[in-house]
Amino acid sequence: MESTNTRWKGKGFAEIARSNPMSQTLDQLQQALTQQPKTRALLSGQCALLEATPAQADLLNRACLGQPIVTAEKDKQWFELGLEETLYLHHHMKCLPIVCENENPMNDEELWARMKSVTKRFPVLYKAYSHLRSKRWVVRSGSQYGADFVVYRHHPALVHSEYAAIVRSPGCDGTRGGDARLESWPDLQCALRVCGSVAKTLLVLNVECNGCVAEEERFPACLEEYTVEERVIKRWTPEKCRDGSQTVGTNGY
Prior knowledge:
Largest sheet: 5 strands, mixed
Helix content: 25-40%
Strand order of the largest sheet: 3-4-2-1-5
Distance between the termini: 31 Å
Low-confidence stretches: 173-177, 245-253
Radius of gyration: 21 Å
Order of helices and strands: HHEEHEEHEHHEEEHEHE
Number of helices: 8
Strand content: 15-25%
């Protein structure tokens, strides 16, 4: 997946992004979270709540992880993390312990089982999310565009999102997200029209489970069995493909 239509929001923003690579911000966030032994997130429903120090809050905002929560407590800063963001910080970056409602620490198996119980599609959604994040793309919810995620080259304050990503799992059974989205021409055309109307490219991520059975999978070993195939789909516009006055092989071209 390559960046082909980067639309920066202002003059000089591309240089700002180059001077502040997302990989550097994530490294700083990892250090800031691990250096505070009391840092932990409370898993509650479909999100996790994190009380952050001012330095941690600044890095979370710069890394575009979570959403700040406005409270009456001026000396505390709270963030709401999505399930994919929570597991990414806990498992991939290994910098965020997770506790349940009774404040007991959760191990990997408990956390995985809890998140799968919230949504059956979580395993494939997390694999797709971590796949994009590992390539240093910024990933946010794409529900407003009828997609699973929207994908940015850098922070959304600097650049518009380039892709609307839909996650499919054609090799999995129906209990874990084996859906039929985009398998009919009308569905595909609708997705392409929506993406075109908001200047985004449709990115389809096919997650293959490669024989993993939902009831038998173990975290994190199951993630190593999953593979992700990227497909960029663009709408074909006949007007742009008609023979015109300039044709290959004519007038010396």
